[in-house]
Amino acid sequence: MSVQAKICGLNNPATVRAAVDGGAAFIGLVFYPPSPRAVTPDQAAELAALAPARVGKVGLFVDADDDAIDAVLATTTLDMLQLHGGESPERVAELRKRTGLKVMKVIKVAGPADLEEAPAWYAAADWLMFDARPPKDMKNALPGGNALAFDWLLLKDREFPLPWMLAGGLNAGNVAEAVRLSGARYVDTSSGVEDKPGVKNPDKIRQFLKAVAAAR
Questions:
Q1: Who is most buried in 60, 85, 106, 177, counting CB within 10 A?
Q2: Which residue from 92, 7, 99 is spatially nearest to 47, judged by alpha carbons?
Q3: pLDDT of residue 85
Q4: What is the pLDDT of residues 42-91, one digit of tens each?
Q5: How does 114-136 read in b/e, with b if 16+ C-beta sit within 10 Å?
């Protein structure tokens, strides 16, 4: 099975086109206002329309209430919700049922104990994502997209009943090693294809996707 990629935090047409043309399986749109990658529902609708049906459209939310999610879904066609906050299994299951969309729950990892959280989500979510947990003393840390990685070997040879993505500090230079060490078949990047937070570089997107296509 080939490795597939999600490019997250896209916020302009050129980067969406680079992701789609480069073979991304998913694009991610951020609906978390403190993030430099955040888009409005109207912006998201325009960007999502640039991606063909074969590309999954994923909306990233952080502890969002129903009104915030409904405002996005009123304008934007999404295939999946990515929940990157402290949402409970009950909240994840509720959103999955209420919206009719697939839901991916992010588990933030700093060490082996964090992976023990995974079973709590098996019945509630459709996907898992393992992302790096920022240290408590990190200034201006975001829920994700902090250019931090965790020990990829923590995931090696582990089996989960749900499909899962690897995230956290991935770029064109390290994604092949991350895949080899973790066994990931799906990878996600945001900061790894940026010139600075919130500013995606189309060339870096293309380079990342080439590296993913070559990973085994």
A1: 60
A2: 7
A3: 94
A4: 999 999 999 999 999 999 999 999 999 999 999 999 999 999 999 999 99
A5: ebeebeebeebbbbbbbbbbbee
Residue 136 has pLDDT above 90, yes or no: no
Between the alpha carbon of residue 15 and those of residues 123, 167, 188, the distances in Å are: 34, 19, 15
Residue type, 80: M
Q: Quote the CA–CA distance of 134 and 148 in Å, as a whole number.
A: 7
What is the largest distance, in Å, between two alpha-carbon atoms of the chain?
42
Under a CB-based contact definition with an 8 Å cutoff, are residues 53 and 76 in contact? no
Q: Which two tokens stand for residue 82?
A: 């990515």
Both tokens of 211, joined, read 């590296």
- Compute the average pLDDT of residues 123-132: 96
Tokens of residue 149, six digits: 């990685």
